[in-house]
Design a protein that fits this description.
Strand order of the largest sheet: 1-2-3
Radius of gyration: 17 Å
CATH class: Alpha Beta
CATH topology: Double Stranded RNA Binding Domain
CATH architecture: 2-Layer Sandwich
Largest sheet: 3 strands, antiparallel
Number of strands: 3
Length: about 90
């Protein structure tokens, strides 16, 4: 059974990193302060809020994104900043 899956297991790529983790690792590798997240705006009804979050790495740049939770907005902002950096 192992032989049947051996080639797939050995060539399988690592799971992609979460954008917030990847951005924090990028900052550390480049000797920068950790990313800072700030909620810029909240709108919508209480049962379906919408958040706008900005992430900043001092001296490097910022990115803003929105989502239906703070976590979703932070993740999208981290992804946007990573795309600017790479």
């Amino acid at each position: 059974m192992r032989q049947a899956w051996a080639d797939r297991v050995s060539t399988h790529d690592k799971a992609p990193k979460h954008p917030k983790s990847a951005l924090q690792e990028w900052a550390a590798a480049n000797e920068k302060k950790p990313p800072a997240y700030q909620t810029k705006h909240r709108s919508g009804p209480h049962h379906a809020p919408k958040f706008v979050v900005e992430v900043e790495i001092k001296g490097v740049g910022t990115a803003t994104a929105e989502g239906f939770s703070k976590q979703e907005a932070e993740t999208a902002a981290a992804k946007a900043l990573l795309e600017k950096l790479t």
